[in-house]
Amino acid sequence: MTSGDDVFTTRTGPASPAAPPDSPHTPARASGRETARLAARIVAPTLAGGVIIRRRTGMALAERYQVDRRAIALLGELRGEHGPGPLRLDVAGRRFAVLLHPEDAGRVLAGTPDPYTPATREKRAALEQFQPHGVLISTEEERGGRDERRAFNEAVLEYGKQTHSLAPALVRTVREEAGKLLGAATAGDGEIDWRRFHTAWNRTVRRIVLGDAARDDTALTAMLDRLRSAGNWSFAAPRRTALRDRFERRLRAHLDRAEPGSLAAALSRTPAAPGTDPAGQVPHWLFAFDAAGIAAFRTLALLSTHGRQRDQVRGELAVTDLSAPHLLPYTRACVLDTVRLWPTTPFLLRESVRETRWGADTLPAGTGFLIYAPLFHRDEALPYADRLTPEIWLDGTARHTEALLPFSAGPAGCPGEDLVLLATSTALAALLERHDYLPERPARLRPDRPLPRTLDHFSLRLAALPR
Q1: C or N terminus of the chain, fewer CB within 10 Å?
Q2: Sign of the C-alpha dihedral, residues 375, 131, 240, 119?
């Protein structure tokens, strides 16, 4: 979802010492001109938009110039010229390979953490600003021989359970905050924009993760946002050590309270092996929930213009007691397809820890592998590439389509997928139960036209209309 790499993703598991099967696709080398074009059309716009925390100006420009459309076109052109194998390029003394075939993307993600670690040099430099012991950037030695940090995250977040044991408290929290958001909107100008939605979402997230007493601790979120802003610059930014120390002290005060019904309470009662650093895992949860908010707001905007899908959601809500936890499969599928359309984490990064075989060639240890998710999500061969199609997540189509990665894939992902889908679907249910929405610019999301390849969530404005 945003956020540097695999946010709230798929089931983790023990690392295997054996590499995945060799790819039949032999790498090709990009020319200097092609490397410059890739940097200008893909890397620079991604950095401008913000990798760790989104930048308002960068996202506005990205939508204006439809940078994802241009990037996908360029990668398609290069694939046609060089073939489906990885495209090798050297940048600033580093070796990279851009993956152009969905099977290769799946191979690399499945081969994590050996031979393809998620703890790339660039990612570690960025995320160490606020989560130096986070599982996503932990080396094999730091994770522990049995992957203790990952096992701890899975235990607290209850991966594999579509309804978390804290679901009753979560549903109550989400519905309360959604109600307050709607109440403030209808008492004012009737509008919900990103600022208002994001403020309400942050309150919701602080309550889910840290408890009700953290609801109004905007200073904690502001500190994290400043650290994430520094993380946007990766190696180029100095370490904000003093700020991180203040953030960690404030965070630990909430965690020490272990308020019942919160993830902090679940964390306090979950056994942790030495070196796990339980508190050090929490910044990533807060960070990743931000991407979930972007996905939820975009989904709400889509449903404001897509009447058929909105009616399907409302049909699901009409036969459900929304005060209690429910799966809401169609609503969840709408969130999944929104993230397919606009991945909150467009680049997935891996780095080889040893030499790997690719067709008739090998790539050396230390090669950085770049997976640009929009290339596969918006492949023109997919009949639903530019349309909202939640059904693919319900009828098996998505499961049998290579490299659809709305929440990434493979054993390197954060195990909160079920929790975030529960939170976002519950929020959408609360917002759609008794209100309609009218977007300020409905033409940009018309269902009878291909949806834009880039969507700036900062610019979305919705008029909330009681039904």
Answers
A1: C
A2: negative
Confidence of residue 8 (pLDDT cuts 50, 70, 90): very low
d(CA 291, CA 225): 13
Predicted local distance difference test score (pLDDT) of residue 1: 37
What's the pLDDT score for residue 20? 55
Phi, psi of 303 (to 5 degrees): -70, -20
Q: What is the largest CA-CA distance in the chain?
A: 66
Three-state secondary-structure class, residue 28: strand
Residue 157 has pLDDT above 60, yes or no: yes
pLDDT at 80: 97
pTM of the model: 0.94
Note whether 53 and 231 are within 8 A (CB).
yes
- Give 399's contacts (C-beta < 8 A, 6+ positions apart): none
Superfamily of domain 28-466: Cytochrome P450 (1.10.630.10)
Distances (CA, A) of 390 to 308, 311, 339, 384, 396: 11, 13, 11, 10, 11
- 267 within 8 A of 156, measured Cβ to Cβ: yes
